[in-house]
Design a protein that fits this description.
By secondary structure, this protein is an alpha/beta fold. It has three domains: 7-122, 2-Layer Sandwich (Nucleotidyltransferase, domain 5); 135-271; 279-413, no CATH class. It contains 19 helices and seven strands. Strand 4 (62-64), helix 2 and strand 5 (82-84) form a beta-alpha-beta unit. It is globular, with a radius of gyration of 28 Å. The mean pLDDT is 90.
């Protein structure tokens, strides 16, 4: 079939099967298929597209409700434009043509195809990031998830210890991230209940610290732990205490696995991120280390055509404010629809920059003192400014320069 008419493809994605619909520029349904989620199904899809004029130089654009998976990877080869349509947006398009609110998978595929036919200009294609950037994104997001999971399990363990074992919390309090440290794990496995902890000898405590990798101050630390465990604490009945101890050991296994996963993924990020060409520029910014810099790169990618200007990047990150106006009333508020991962990384970035960049600290203080911003609003404004600087540096391949980034703030501070 010739390409004298424009053709659009919509795919209703599911776990095992997919529905495909092709329409022309007049909205006429040309073909529909039901394919499986395997190599055979992908071949049927590609053959169907080729039958209706799909070529390497002029591929048929595709709309689908996901940005991940093997099907998307197959579609993204070559120059094809793949549009990941938000399911909520697709539902609004469905209501335009079906007042009865009926829903079917073939019908959803047709709706997605018509989204491209009528409003392709209003939707954004998947970015053309390099394979290295996409690999770093996988590792950085996995490390972030593992860190959040570790903290969640640590909070659960802390809550459980408060119910029957406050001596352990007091013993680990001087340690940073105490419940995540190997020494805490060794001691909890050695004494899962306060009754057993009170019977630990100096020799047993020193041996546990050595197994955890401690090298210095072992005798003094063992003595401190012994005094904490033998202090006077309220206790649960013995049977209840033993049961809670078994529950704690089961939770401790999950925490150890989460700590190992977070550490292994951190090492993987440290190995992959410096290999990227943008790593040197990103790491030149104050407040950005390898882990946080990798998270920023994972969300913005290395496709320079993804954002038309710095304003688009700021809106994507939720750093820039949004204005809502109706009649004579208007309000300026923060954005709720944003990339949550990038926004979270930006909060940590701005917080770290306060102690490593004089210009950033002066800008933050000016927002607090002169504009009356609260802490979160001032940090968000700082993040908004630093994102603009990052966009400029990546576009022009320049490293961060403090005097260029904050000339007014540095002069005021001087």
């Amino acid at each position: 079939m010739g390409r004298n008419i424009l053709i659009y493809c919509g795919i209703d994605w599911a776990e095992r099967t997919h529905d495909v619909a092709l329409v022309d520029d007049s909205g006429q349904l040309l073909a529909k298929r039901h394919i499986t989620d395997d190599a055979a199904g992908y071949k049927i899809l590609l053959d169907l597209l080729a039958e209706y004029g799909d070529t390497e130089e002029n591929p048929i654009p595709v709309a689908i409700e996901t940005s991940r998976g093997l099907l998307v990877a197959v579609l993204r080869t070559g120059k094809r434009q793949v549009f990941a349509i938000n399911p909520m947006a697709a539902a609004r398009y469905r209501d335009r043509t079906s007042v009865s609110r009926k829903k079917s998978d073939p019908g959803d595929a047709l709706v997605l195809a018509n989204v491209l036919r009528t409003d392709m200009h209003a939707h954004r294609t998947l970015p053309r990031d390099s394979d290295l950037a996409r690999a770093i994104a996988v590792l950085a997001r996995a490390q972030q998830d593992a860190t959040w999971n570790r903290q969640q399990i640590s909070n659960q363990l802390r809550s459980l210890l408060r119910e029957y074992y406050p001596a352990a919390l007091a013993a680990f309090e001087p340690w940073q991230n105490g419940l995540c440290r190997p020494a805490a794990h060794e001691l909890l496995k050695l004494a899962p209940t306060p009754a057993r902890a009170a019977r630990l000898t100096r020799t047993q405590l020193q041996a546990a610290l050595k197994r955890a990798g401690r090298k210095r101050g072992i005798e003094a630390e063992a003595e401190r732990l012994r005094e904490a465990f033998r202090a006077d604490w309220a206790q649960q009945p013995p049977l209840v205490e033993d049961a809670l101890g078994k529950q704690m050991l089961a939770l401790l296994v999950q925490l150890e696995a989460a700590c190992t996963a977070a550490d292994d993924l951190s090492e993987a990020v440290e190995e992959a991120f410096p290999q990227h060409p943008d790593a040197e520029i990103i790491l030149s910014f104050p407040g950005l280390g390898i882990q946080l810099g990798a998270r920023v790169l994972a969300e913005i990618g290395d496709d320079r055509t993804r954002f038309a200007d710095a304003r688009g990047l700021k809106a994507y990150a939720g750093a820039s404010p949004i204005t809502r106006a109706s009649g004579k009333k208007s309000s300026i508020t923060r954005r709720w629809v944003k990339n949550d991962r990038l926004n979270h990384a930006g909060y940590l970035w701005a917080f770290s920059a306060l102690t490593s960049s004089p210009g950033a600290k002066t800008h933050y203080r000016r927002r607090r003192d002169e504009h009356g911003d609260w802490h979160a609003a001032a940090q968000r404004n700082l993040f908004n400014r630093m994102l603009g600087q990052l966009y400029h540096c990546l576009k022009n391949r320049d490293l961060f320069d403090e005097s260029t980034a904050y000339p007014t703030q540095l002069a005021a501070a001087a």
